[in-house]
Amino acid sequence: MPLNAFLRTSRIQPVHAVSVKVNQLVKTFDGQRAVDVISFEARKGEVLGFLGPNGAGKTTTMKIVTGYLPQTAGKVEVCGFDITANPMEARARIGYLPEHNPLYRDMYVREYLTFTAGLHQVKNAAKRVAEMVERTGLTSHRQKQIGALSKGYRQRVGLAQAMLHDPEVLILDEPTSGLDPNQIIEIRQLIKDLGKEKTVILSTHILGEVEAVCDRAIIINKGKLVADAPIQALKQQFSGQSIVTAEFAEKVDKNTLSTIKNVQMVKELGKNKWQLTADASMDIRAEVFAFAVAHHLTLLELHKEVFSVEDVFQQLTR
User: Fold this and answer.
1) How far apart are CA 257 and CA 254, in angstroms?
2) Domains with residue ranges and CATH for the chain
3) pLDDT confidence of residue 1
4) Is 60 exposed, middle or buried (0-12, 13-18, 19+ CB in 10 A)?
5) Mean pLDDT of 239-268
6) How far apart are CA 170 and CA 45, in angstroms?
7) With bands split at pLDDT 50, 70 and 90, how would you rate the model's confidence at 235?
8) How far is CA 269 from CA 129, 136, 247, 272, 290, in A?
9) pTM, entire model
10) Pairing mode of beta strands 94-97, 81-82
């Protein structure tokens, strides 16, 4: 299927309120387009992965959406407020963790969060700070100076400040950067939980993170939007075919395997181990199992090959 047709057919239909609406966005630096006429929406109750190679325009787009950079052309709305015409109303509804997490390193964790709560005029600031400290796993570090923290814990402080004023939209640029494996699991779960009640836009170079956390992914390349679809639809569409690996205890020949319903191609991988290919929309594991039963064969292995977000990313951004 041509890419344009895929983009038209695979976009998820709006079922939640649109929190972020980007329309025909353009950003030019010295005559060169860093963002080249892109449009997308992000809805309440979803985690949207925002992907692209270095220099693709991801961070520039995020800075425009948050009001840090003015656009050259196009329109951005956050919770119904135009980021240009009503910047304060729009920004008040955004929590932002930039890629390079800017913190006052001479301040202590609780002191910094209390200061940030004051800037946002958060009611019951002490209670809210305590909630964010606990939720981001900073309880044992709340009395420490930010400059003395590891990169992972500084990242947690950045997440806490982004969520402090209970924004409707969270924009997170590389939120798990510098975290150890256990911390990554904890923060991913936190992002998934937040995605149930808020709009989360997540930019990351860890493509496995997108599969683990996101409901939908947008991929941009050289400033242009090249894909926008739910994760599973994205992987299925770009796989082009469904591939199943089957290993039998007994000997079976290629011609016999070719008679299995919906099988288009058979390839031998090793002794009694075969790769069976079908159309992308088909899952032929049930047919293979039925074939084994009918021919009194013992299945030692049967699994469907999974096409990953990384595979899609490489196809679209080479």
Assistant:
1) 5
2) 3-236 (3.40.50.300), 241-306 (3.30.70.1560)
3) 41
4) buried
5) 86
6) 11
7) confident
8) 58, 47, 9, 8, 21
9) 0.73
10) unpaired
